[in-house]
Design goal:
By secondary structure, this protein is of the alpha/beta class. About 35% of the residues lie in helices and about 25% in strands. Strands 3-2-4-1-10-9-11-14 form an eight-stranded antiparallel beta sheet, covered by helices on one side. Strand 19 (about 345-355), helix 12 (about 360-370) and strand 20 (about 375-380) form a beta-alpha-beta unit. Helix 10 runs antiparallel to helix 17 (about 480-495).
Length: about 625
């Protein structure tokens, strides 16, 4: 959600900023803009509705000189997507420019007060209120920019990552964050800013991750200084980003989403590396070793998550209850944080987030910590906010996920949850030794089975072409595969804009069956587990109503093949690991339907990769 890029140094800033914005396009946006201080210290601001390519076209005949600048991609919150509301925003005098990710919750009150002082506004955004407030404080109290920013941030309520420049001080950028990520890159006599590391790694791997309520003073020719709201200096380590440029490029694939679907076998091997040891028949998670007492003695697990991560959490719930014999609840983070939940100091709260910046999940973590729970984070983005806010946790190590619709992060989350359940089950003595060994071997074999499954890509593409006409889809699953049905429906909604619903197959008779007719395709996950006969009956009920059935079955299943209109065969595995395989055909099905409909697969409308506001 929104992208921030900044540069100050010896290079021309404009190419660095534009390239950085392109690296951040995966976050989702509807407008883009850039502010540059040219060699004469004039402030040039260019912005437009649409894509970064539209901004490039707009600036073709403009002055884009200068070695300092800030740039932004906006995802509309306050004010419709248009040029006036796009960032950067400038102050009334034209001296200051700001870019901002987040929401200023008390902007209406601040705006009214400023208007009473005679300040005029050109946009409908909360961000313009912030830059006008900074300038008003600066001019009326005759302050330097840093002090004015500090005082303004004491006044505002909300979440933000900001960068501010002043044409009267062209050698400086002031940046600050609260509940929204911001990274400072350190090069040779140059500095970079980014919402994450992706726009920075082309130039440097040395970064400082700012913490909440940090303000960075980035001055040409000086070391970066970080202070808090009270101007107390904060010490920060410079860390090296473990990210390669190749990981954020398409590598010959038409879309990032397809690339990331095909990366899953290797990603899961990376996820398990150093953790799953088949020869020694064990699973080793450092978090379980270091915090054995809190985790093994937990009376209850509560998993908080949003979107795709919530679906992974539903699988995790079944794994923890089945293997560890401990109660587990799954909560939408957005509901959990507001409903005054009952939490005890014997509870472990597991927070799952791909980006590690999901605002609702981060707020749920803080609430649970206040109530005394032990917090375990499962994230992909190293150095992000949630890992820093939790007591311990596990990274999923699947590499950067650029496509907005999550694919490899989902299977990575499920893999980590499986390893966590196995490690805890072993420590708690709640899993049979033979089952423990069998699960370890099967989990380790999943990547190879994924590779075999991906060989059906062309066949799934052919199936997808048949259903581009559909206006509704129904996805059905039982047990471990019910969350897979939910995830499959979500993928289709996200990128093809076809309405889809996921249900437990047994619930079909309790309402959804009224929707089924010859125009309703139904996807059924019908693997041979303990509920196979039940699902078989569901398929018969669907066919009796003339709907077309796409069935996911195990290899060699001739019974359902005779009943369904088309089948996709899955390699055999243990029931609790089936979601890792069953989800892949559903990802491909959604992908190819969206491609056939001509949709923007990697950047679907209205969606953002990292949801850093409520």
């Amino acid at each position: 959600m929104c992208g921030i890029v900044g540069y100050i140094g010896k290079r021309k800033a404009y190419p660095v900023l534009i390239n950085g914005l392109k690296r951040l396009e995966y976050r989702g946006y509807d407008s883009a803009g850039v502010a540059l201080l040219n060699d004469d210290n004039e402030l040039n601001v260019y912005k437009t509705k649409g894509k970064v390519s539209d901004l490039e076209a707009y600036t073709e005949d403009k002055d884009v000189s200068g070695t300092v600048g800030i740039a932004h991609t906006r995802w509309a919150t306050h004010g419709e997507p248009n040029t006036a509301n796009a960032h950067p925003h400038i102050s009334s005098s034209g001296n200051l420019a700001i870019i901002h990710n987040g929401i200023i919750e008390n902007y209406a009150t601040l705006k009214r007060r400023l208007m009473e002082k005679g300040v005029e506004f050109k946009s409908n955004t909360d961000t313009e209120v912030l830059i006008q407030l900074i300038e008003y404080i600066q001019s009326t109290k005759n302050l330097d920019l840093l002090t004015a920013v500090r005082m303004a941030l004491h006044t505002v309520i909300g979440a933000y990552a900001i960068a501010v420049i002043d044409k009267r001080n062209p050698d400086q950028i002031i940046a600050a964050r609260k509940s929204s990520p911001l990274v400072v890159g350190i090069g040779e006599d140059e500095f970079f800013l980014g919402s994450d590391a992706s726009p920075i790694i082309e130039y440097t791997k040395k970064v400082i991750y700012l913490d909440d309520k940090d303000i960075a003073i980035i001055h040409r020719g000086e070391e970066v200084k970080v202070v808090d709201f009270y101007n107390e200096e904060m010490k920060h380590d410079v860390t090296e980003v473990a990210l390669d440029l190749a990981q954020i490029e398409k590598g010959g694939y038409p879309h990032f989403m397809l690339k990331e679907i095909f990366e899953q076998p290797d990603c899961l091997m990376d996820c398990m590396s150093g953790r799953v040891n088949v020869e020694a028949n064990n699973v080793v998670l450092s978090a379980v070793i270091d915090h054995r007492e809190q985790l093994v003695n937990a009376r209850r697990f509560i998993i908080v998550a949003c979107g795709t991560s919530w679906h992974a959490a539903q699988i995790g719930k079944q794994l923890l209850e089945d293997i560890c014999k401990v109660p587990c609840e799954v909560e939408y983070a957005s509901e959990f944080r507001y409903r005054n939940p009952v939490i005890n100091n014997t509870d472990v709260v597991i927070a799952i987030s791909q980006s590690g910046e999901t605002a609702d999940t981060l707020a749920a973590v803080e609430l649970a910590k206040e109530k005394g729970a032990f917090i375990y984070g499962i994230c992909n983005a190293i150095g992000s906010s949630i890992p820093r806010a939790t007591h311990t946790g596990s990274y999923i190590h699947v590499g950067p996920e650029i496509g907005v619709a999550s694919t490899k992060a989902f299977t990575g989350q499920v893999t980590v949850l499986t390893m966590l359940a196995l490690a805890l089950g072993k420590e708690r003595g709640t899993i049979d030794e033979q089952k423990y060994k069998d699960l370890i071997k099967e989990l380790y074999d999943i990547p190879e089975k994924m590779k075999e499954l991906l060989k059906q890509c062309d066949a799934i593409r052919d199936i997808s072409q048949i259903f581009t006409y559909a206006r509704n889809f129904l996805y059905l699953g039982r047990g471990y595969n019910y969350p897979v049905a939910l995830e499959g429906a979500l993928k289709l909604k996200e990128i093809s804009y076809i309405h889809a619903e996921g249900y437990p197959a047994a619930e079909m008779k309790h309402g959804p069956i009224a929707l089924i007719d010859e125009e309703m395709p139904v996807v059924v996950i019908a693997t041979k587990n303990v509920l196979y006969e039940k699902v078989l009956s569901n398929i018969q009920e669907i066919k009796a109503r003339r709907a077309r059935v796409i069935a996911l079955v195990n290899e060699g299943d001739e019974t359902i093949k005779r009943m369904a209109d088309m089948v996709i065969e899955l390699p055999h595995t243990m029931e609790c690991l089936e979601p890792l395989l069953a989800t892949i055909p559903l990802q491909l099905l959604a992908y190819f339907i969206a491609v056939c409909k001509g949709k923007d697969v990697d950047q679907p409308r209205n969606l953002a990769k990292s949801v850093t506001v409520e």
